[in-house]
Amino acid sequence: MARRKSIVPFLAAGLIAVSCLTAAAEDVADSADHPLIPRYEGAEIVRYENEAFTDYDLRTGKEAKTGTTSLEGKLARITYQGPAERSVLEVFRNYENALGEAGFETLFSCARLECGDIPRALESGPRYMLLWGEGDHRYLAAKLTRADGDVYAALYVTKNGSGGPAKGRAMVQLDVVELEAMEQKMVVVEASAMHDDLAREGRVALHGIQFDFDKDTLRPDSAPQIAEIAKLLKENPSFSVLVVGHTDMQGALDYNMDLSRRRAARVVEALVGEFGVAGERLNALGVGPAAPLASNDGEEGRALNRRVEIVKQ
């Protein structure tokens, strides 16, 4: 039987938790503990997600507007069901100690009403995983500084109020984000290829135009693709085009519509200001998530949907 590292529960106040090897619990298929953070002894993994690169809003305060840090990187999301007769506080303190021993620095910690809307956000948001909180709940955000990329952890512990044999047990939601650069796979579409696509389909999708996360700021690696658009327009002086911004389905519709419009406008500004393209030949539009190229259920599809398109007028 597989054996793994776990947090041995401590019962006396102030006693530091230590780690040992213990038999694996009955976990869901294809799941695993995060290598940096052991599980609480006797806990079972009941839900598990692992994404190679995605976005994550880390709560670092009780108010979402002022207490949210946006991250991008590798995400592991693990939901544990604790053993019987272990309180939320006991499980939480053990994890708190284990994170400290692993080198994590606490960024924010709260209990019950101090947590504001964090319980509602975690238990009913787009990344909802089985928690069924009742009454007591505690939350901790922490950061591990590393030379090869920082690691952030969000720990949420609540009491299972769903009924059945698990009723009253502590439930643990552990989200771990490892910051890393996205692997760049988008190629620059040359002016000649754009010309052919416009002639054949009237539009061309461009993934080589990149923006800072959740902003309309063009990234420096977008310059080659914008230069090719300028070349296309200079070689075809009769062309006028729509520059159309697209987003994925993450977030509110109104926000994504506005973000996509602002991003398209930044491309137009670059073409006019840096390459001398006449402004009357360009129109910026934003359609948000209204015209996806792929499913928004996974990060691979969402990456395809975040794009700029050139449409011939």
List its traits.
alpha+beta, 6-stranded antiparallel β-sheet, 4-stranded mixed β-sheet
Protein described:
The chain has 313 residues and is of the alpha+beta class. It folds into two domains: 3-179, 3-Layer(aba) Sandwich (Protein Transport Mog1p, Chain A); 191-312, 60s Ribosomal Protein L30, Chain: A (2-Layer Sandwich). 24% of the residues lie in helices and 33% in strands. The protein contains six helices and 13 strands. The protein has helices at 88-101, 118-124, 191-201, 223-235, 253-275, 299-305, and strands at 3-7, 19-23, 39-40, 44-59, 68-81, 105-111, 133-144, 151-160, 170-179, 203-206, 241-246, 282-286, 307-312. The strands form three sheets. The chain has a six-stranded antiparallel β-sheet, with helices on both faces. It has a four-stranded mixed β-sheet with strand order 10-13-11-12. A three-stranded mixed β-sheet has the order 2-1-3. A hairpin with a 6-residue loop joins strand 7 (133-144) and strand 8 (151-160). Helix 3 (191-201) crosses helix 4 and helix 4 crosses helix 5. It is elongated and about 75 Å long.
